[in-house]
# Entry
Amino acid sequence: MTTAPRREPLAFGDADEVVVALRAAGHRVSRAARTVLAALFAAERPVAAEQIADGLGGDLPALELTSVYRNLERLEQLGVVSHVHVGHSPGLYSLVRDGDPEYIVCDGCGAVVTADHAALEPVRAAVREAFGYEASFTHFPMHGRCAACARRGG
Amino acid sequence: MTTAPRREPLAFGDADEVVVALRAAGHRVSRAARTVLAALFAAERPVAAEQIADGLGGDLPALELTSVYRNLERLEQLGVVSHVHVGHSPGLYSLVRDGDPEYIVCDGCGAVVTADHAALEPVRAAVREAFGYEASFTHFPMHGRCAACARRGG
DNA sequence: GCCTTGCTGCGAATCGCTTGCAATAGCGAT
DNA sequence: ATCGCTATTGCAAGCGATTCGCAGCAAGGC
# Structure
């Protein structure tokens, strides 16, 4: 109800591959769609929709925020991108490369750790054991305090 | 930076005790403040600010949403209340009684499990072990899929 | 009871995101 | 190349949650 259905990640190598997939899925590939893709491939870290709309700080043509959201949503349905919500900030979008990265955020200093699925298996196992839930930290990250902040703040 | 500083929970028995604490902290206790407190003590589950502003469905006098937020914030700083963010919905506020409850939300059906601190210790231990983080699911809950949804959805 | 000033109430603003709609532009067919 | 259908865009307005500004009211110390 809250989260979009998850499909197997496609791990696209470059924007052109995604363009092919988009067309295969019956979509048109507009300038805005290409720009959003270019931005996602150019960004090293998850980016907010607004940064994409601003052309990633001038490197790319600016486009309408609305359009960015619509493209991101489409790409997300295709399994090409995913987004995380860190705290109360805007969602951050990134390409799904090989398996979804999961996130752990420090509420003290804001540090974000990216963990791969495997590293979190013990955690997931503990949750499964205790609650029967299959935990996921891809869309909503885990929150806590990093070692330094935990020591400092008690 | 994201989350309010956490203090030791005070576990107030009734509204009057909180009133005393409010005054001790140099606050005035207005009608709105009393009503917010009454609502929090009356509610069995975490409530949204708007429900409190609406007088909890007629049982209590209605008040200004702004005021509710301001009172909740004050009470939160005092360590009397805390709030959770479930998905993209409004924050849900509740009294801190004895140790903060932690939450696990099913992204499939929306079910929310309340777990006490102790039950989550194995999970916290696994996180500590793997990442050095001290995890907390009080303000931002853990997300995942409950047993039924996990089975159903794959 | 008086006076100070913290709180309230109301309005407007902000932030992240969605929706409505007419104009534009992909792209398959010609 | 060009045509035509309609998916997408751009712009404006809307929305839900929360915050801010400010004048007037009312807690509560004296």
